[in-house]
Write a structure and sequence with these properties.
Elements lengths: L3 H6 L5 E6 L9 H15 L5 E4 L11 H10 L3 E7 L5 H14 L3 E5 L20 H13 L21 E6 L6 H17 L3 E4 L5 H13 L7 E6 L3 H8 L10 H11 L6 H18 L3 E5 L4 H13 L4 H8 L11 E3 L6 E6 L12 H14 L4 H11 L9 H15 L17 H4 L26 H11 L23 H6 L4 H5 L15
Parallel strand pairs: 1-2, 1-8, 2-3, 3-4, 4-5, 5-6, 6-7, 7-8
Antiparallel strand pairs: 9-10
Bound molecules: iron/sulfur cluster.
Iron/sulfur cluster binds next to helix 15 and helix 16.
């Protein structure tokens, strides 16, 4: 049986995947029986190349995806298991990955995951010990033979046996502001450098942005990684939910929602329109040169077959007209490339000229923090050498001299709302603290959940990655955002001195000086 890896390796092939959303309760629950019926149809359909099964989608507790995945796997279908960081820490994720490997599941879609919104007895405590980039990096290490020795210990245990995961990751450019779009592109590059083998884009309904995603990847040395297009089969109700922003990171514009409501009021509730609308998106992805389409919002095999059958009736060039119709960006939306007036798609030869974002978050605090960091932590500098000497000779080197620790704690709480995690990411996030100001403690770029620049979780305001991008852009260094090895926070450093940890080479910055080799090809960046 041909694997998904082999299919993706065959250039020119356009693949079809379908999402199966897991359900709450056991396999005998009515909803699970319905899901199993759908799964059976997907397994039997020769046009469906793989089935993708969600992991507590939407931040809700659900049946583990492997329960539904096993019958499909044993029937010879390629199964992609979603693995997210919201409910599991790095040890549990590794454990889950060993289980998947042992059971024969070789395809994983690695994601940060939605913020938990429900749970038995109240809302669950989110985990977010690592993020999607660090998870991709960990899976790649497992593929290379994970080194079980604690990096601080110098142990002598042999590397573990290799796994053979095909690692997928998700990206999105369906964002409003420059400070959302550009960090997403930077994070995509970080995922590919970390070891992602294929990419699926987020749900979105603008052909220009879809074309820009592919053009950006090709122009920035990321084009060798297969890109799959997300096709969500809308309905009037779900369009309204998306429009109201109730699903993080998914946008249905006012115009598209009005169209969906109009068709939803028709005698067939818009079924014909929505299936054709999905088929047109499949055609657009095929025409643009994506490597496949990923169908979501489908709940029975008849809908999947219908979408694919409609798409088959289109002529080879019809997608160009569909691309002009599928133009649902928002007023003031940021684009990297200019529009091609003839096609309605992006023109990869020209940068878009966008109006200046007036709400930039740049102030003196950034410049002062940057100066202070350079003065204190430049390797080999006077302060760094003195700090290492003082902390190394202190009674407790993890805390450093008592007075220094008091100054560190007081100043960092006042300036950055520091939570004393001991493994400081301020220099990678333009001096913004991910522990106190990011709901998901994202250390390797923004999650996909922002809406118009704001965090998906109430009370967190504008995303720290948007603010970091704007700070870096103010001094022309925005290309440095995420241009480093993945940050994996050492939770063992909590309540210790981050200054001492940097000076004595105990934090992630020291580990980054000895990065693992990159797997994905990196080519020079185009404009
Ligand atoms: S040490 Fe940790 S908690 Fe404190 S500012 Fe740095 S990242 Fe934030």
């Amino acid at each position: 049986m041909e694997t998904l890896r082999e299919k993706l390796a065959a250039p020119g092939r356009f693949l079809i995947g379908s999402e199966l959303v897991s359900t709450r309760g056991g396999m005998a629950e009515g909803s699970a029986i319905k899901a199993r019926d759908f799964l059976r149809g997907l397994v039997e359909s020769p046009r469906v190349d793989w089935v993708s099964i969600t992991d507590n989608a939407g931040g809700n507790p659900q049946l583990a995806p492997t329960a539904l995945g096993k019958p499909a796997l044993y029937a010879g279908k390629e199964v992609v298991i979603h693995l997210t960081c919201k409910d599991l820490n790095r040890n549990a994720l590794e454990s889950e990955a060993w289980l998947l490997h042992s059971e024969g599941f070789n395809n994983i879609l690695a994601m940060t995951g939605d913020y938990p919104i429900t749970g038995n007895g109240g809302t669950a405590k989110p985990v977010f010990d690592i993020d999607s980039v660090a998870l991709v990096a960990m899976l790649r290490q497992m593929n290379e033979g994970l080194d079980p020795n604690d990096p601080r210990g110098g142990g002598k245990r042999a590397r573990l046996g290799k796994t053979s995961f095909l690692i997928g990751a998700v990206t999105t450019n369906f964002k409003l502001r420059e400070g959302e779009v550009m960090p997403q592109y930077a994070k995509l590059a970080a995922k590919i450098r970390a070891g992602a083998n294929f990419i699926i884009n987020q749900i979105g309904f603008d052909a220009r942005k879809k074309s820009e995603q592919l053009a950006y990847m090709r122009a920035h040395g990321l084009g060798d990684t297969p890109l799959i297009g997300n096709v969500y089969v809308l309905g009037a109700r779900v369009a309204q939910v998306f429009h109201e922003g109730r699903i993080p990171g998914v946008v249905v514009s006012r115009e598209l929602n009005a169209l969906c409501q109009k068709h939803g009021a028709s005698p067939d509730k818009g079924k014909g329109f929505f299936l054709e609308f999905a088929a047109k998106q499949v055609a657009i992805y095929r025409g643009l040169g994506y490597r496949g389409a990923y169908l979501g919002g489908v709940h029975d095999i008849a809908a999947v077959e219908k979408v694919l059958a409609i798409e088959k009736t289109f002529a080879a060039d019809d997608w160009k007209q569909f691309a002009r119709e599928l133009s649902f960006s928002r007023e003031g939306e940021f684009f990297f490339y200019a529009a091609d007036a003839a096609t309605g798609l992006c023109d990869p030869t020209k940068r878009a000229v966008m109006p200046e974002d007036k709400s930039r978050h740049v102030g003196a605090a950034y410049q002062i923090s940057k100066w202070a960091h350079g003065a204190m932590f430049t390797p080999g500098g006077t302060v760094a050498r003195l700090g290492a000497k003082l902390c190394g000779g202190a009674k407790d080197p993890a805390q450093g001299p008592r007075l220094m620790r008091l100054v560190e704690h007081a100043s960092k709480v006042a300036l950055f709302a520091c939570q004393d995690c001991g493994d400081c990411s301020l220099p990678e996030i333009a001096y913004l603290c991910p522990e106190s100001q990011c709901a998901k403690n994202q250390r390797n770029g923004p999650c996909g959940g922002t809406r118009d620049g704001r965090c998906e979780v109430d009370g967190f305001g504008d995303c720290i990655w948007l603010r970091a991008y704007e700070r870096l852009k103010s001094d022309g260094t925005e290309r440095q955002l995420l241009a480093h090895t993945p940050v994996v926070q050492d939770q063992g450093l909590r309540r210790t001195s981050s200054w001492a940890n940097t000076w004595l080479g105990r934090d992630h910055l020291a580990r980054a000086n000895n990065p693992p080799p990159a797997v994905a090809p990196t080519k020079p960046a185009a404009p």
